[in-house]
From TrEMBL:
SUPFAM superfamilies: Indolic compounds 2,3-dioxygenase-like (SSF140959). PANTHER family: TRYPTOPHAN 2,3-DIOXYGENASE. GO terms for biological process: L-tryptophan catabolic process to acetyl-CoA; L-tryptophan catabolic process to kynurenine. Residues 310-384 are annotated as: Disordered. Transmembrane segments: none annotated. This is Tryptophan 2,3-dioxygenase. Residues 320-332 have a biased composition (Low complexity). GO terms for molecular function: heme binding; L-tryptophan 2,3-dioxygenase activity; metal ion binding. It comes from the Eukaryota. Residues 371-384 have a biased composition (Basic and acidic residues).
């Protein structure tokens, strides 16, 4: 998870640089642009297949795209078989949005036989809405009381859209929701309990994905404004498109891949209304469970070796309890005079162990462990 967050931070910095480059282009006047515009025809930015690949890999669905000259966006690449094939493949491969949805569905605490976050959250919402109704009824001004009752009704309908799976699925079919019902629950739980160790980096990832969506939208907006500045809003684009009018249509929420993450704030509750974690659930969010979604990076005993535990999901959390346990193990090893042990063996259901022994040269757990970076990369791939 740490590696994923690091790479997403890199992606956001690259996109920020792309957005800022428009500042240089905006120093050009329309007359300056007219001097070389005819050399660009019939080329068009719409023909940038790499931008289409980026959109598809993020998770932009074809049915949500605005049609280009009343045709599918892939038709413009029909004369280039290799490029056309690459775009079709990218449409059928699992996208980042799809992988994110699957990952969120495994969020610990959603189990009905366990903490059952969704049930507790629904009870908290009901209590909050009932309090709003009581406040509305206590309002003395009739006009304001009617307005408050209308607001309460609208808010109830809004929450019903996430509690009723049929309504949610209907919104997904219309393209107004992106995440599955269970994945949306996971995203909400991470948002509420983001300060817990196990949810800290997942929350960072969700924030970075929103940053990517925002920067893509800013890039589109800056492009639209530059086009309007250079050729106005009526002139046809160099590639034969409607130019400004077409580009402006791509600024809608249809082109936001992670739209649901932005809309999570609609369903948040005040801190004093958030369902409290049970002692058992708080423990689960503080440590890595055996065979669960997560991973541990540890520094081992007397020989000073380093090891990596990779479990399903590959998240990395180093808690105080684990540190204390490691310290006790180190003290025990020193008392026994065993300076040859590099790293204590760690086992977990579904986990692989790779470690490198320290001063004594011992190798832990059955992997050659010589390439720590590759181990982390495999962990990140597993988590997505």
């Amino acid at each position: 998870m740490l590696e994923i967050v690091k790479r997403m931070q890199r992606v956001t910095l690259i996109l920020k640089l792309c957005v800022d480059q428009f500042l240089i282009l905006e120093t050009m006047t329309p007359l300056d642009f007219m001097e070389f515009r005819h050399h660009l025809s019939p080329a068009s930015g719409f023909q940038s297949y790499q931008f289409r690949l980026l959109e598809n890999k993020l998770g932009l669905k074809g049915e949500l795209r605005v049609r280009y000259n009343q045709e599918n966006y892939t038709k413009v690449f029909g004369d280039e078989p290799q490029i056309y094939k690459a775009i079709i493949v990218s449409e059928n491969e699992p996208s980042l949005q799809q992988l994110l949805s699957r990952w969120l569905e495994r969020t610990p605490g959603l189990e009905e036989t366990g903490f059952n976050f969704w049930k507790k959250y629904k009870m908290a919402v009901d209590a909050t809405l009932e309090e709003d109704v009581r406040e509305a009824e206590a309002e003395e001004n009739e006009g304001m009381r009617t307005h408050l009752h209308t607001q309460c009704k609208r808010r109830r309908e809004l929450f019903d859209s996430i509690f009723d799976v049929r309504i949610h699925n209907a919104l997904m079919a219309r393209g107004e929701r992106r995440l599955t019902h269970t994945a949306l629950q996971g995203a909400l739980m991470i948002a509420f309990y983001r300060e817990e160790p196990r949810f800290n980096q997942p929350h960072q990832l969700l924030t970075l994905l929103m940053d990517v969506d925002s920067l893509m939208t800013k890039w589109r907006y800056n492009h639209v404004m530059l086009v309007q500045r250079m050729i106005g809003s009526q002139l046809i684009g160099t590639g034969g498109s409607s130019g400004y009018q077409y580009l402006r249509s791509t600024l809608s929420d249809r082109y936001k891949v992670f739209l649901d993450l932005f809309n999570l704030s609609t369903f948040l509750l005040p801190r004093n209304s958030v369902p409290p974690l049970t002692r058992q659930m708080k423990s689960r969010l503080s440590i890595r469970e055996s065979g669960g979604v997560g991973g541990v990076v540890g520094v081992g005993g007397g020989g000073g070796g380093v090891g990596v535990v990779v479990g399903e999901g590959g998240n990395t959390y180093d808690t105080q309890q684990q540190q204390k346990q490691q310290q006790k193990q180190q003290q025990q090893q020193k008392r026994e005079g065993d300076e040859e042990i590099g790293v204590g063996s760690v086992e977990g259901e579904g986990a692989d162990f790779e470690g490198v022994g320290g001063g004594g040269g011992g190798v832990g757990g059955g992997g050659d462990g010589s390439d720590l970076e590759k181990s982390i990369e495999r962990s990140c791939e597993a988590s997505m």
